[in-house]
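User: Here's a chain of 304 residues. Predict its fold as tokens.
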Amino acid sequence: MATPVVTSSAVAHPYADAEVEMGAPAGRVDPAKARQRPLPTPKPLDRHGPARIVAMCNQKGGVGKTTSTINLGAALVEHGRRVLLVDLDPQGALSVGLGIQSQQLERTVYNALMERHTTLRDVIVRNVGHVRGLDLAPSNIDLSAAEVQLVSEVAREQSLLRVLAEVRQEYDYVLIDCQPSLGLLTVNALTAAQGVIIPLECEFFSLRGVALLVDTIDKVKERLNPSLEVDGILATMYDSRTVHAREVFSRVVEAFGDTVFQTVITRTVRFPETTVAGQPITTWASTSTGAQAYRDLAKEVLAL
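Assistant: Prediction complete.
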């Protein structure tokens, strides 16, 4: 999908006339269900690699980036793909969500980025979350130092791209869980990636920041990575029972059109449970609506 051209004014105030619209009869219609279409069955692979690198990115925290990275990765594995997850957030939520005690690790993504003699292979944890074929490059608070130390490096924006190059042939997808900011680590992820998935909570304040993120993506595309595209915007934490969520989703589709994934991730208590279990929802609650949603998302991603 091509990067959408969106100005801040297009999404900054989607509820300018909200007082009128909230009570409209159309608000009772579930716009997410209205967009549902049959999804193609992914074809099996003859061989693995080179990986398509995808950055899961949104500068706002708490929108479902980490949850989506884990569960999309696990769903892709179910379709026969080899997947590497990269934790590029110093908070290490991706690592914790897969049962890895990253504070106890001797080497993490930080070491691979900053130490000449440490490679990504030295860092990778294999078959995480009880999923064979799902690997993880973990991180912890040490990674916060990289934001400062990379400033003085030559080709600092390409540091992650260089690190990923040595393992790219081993995987079909590399999913990068970005930190909730538009700093140098996130720019590294965007420089390394071919695609960006933007998880967007179906809530007004989440929508306001998308224009800023799209502007950053456009700048990286222009100056550092001409092949970068927005793969799609993923609506998360959707609750069709509320007029607010339905209105936000409708405005997202209005602003971004076909760039919005058909798959919508609804709210469910199962997601917090999977974090405690250290497993993806596809294995922890394999028959749940959340698990099926990420399987559908995987089909959309594979069809790109």
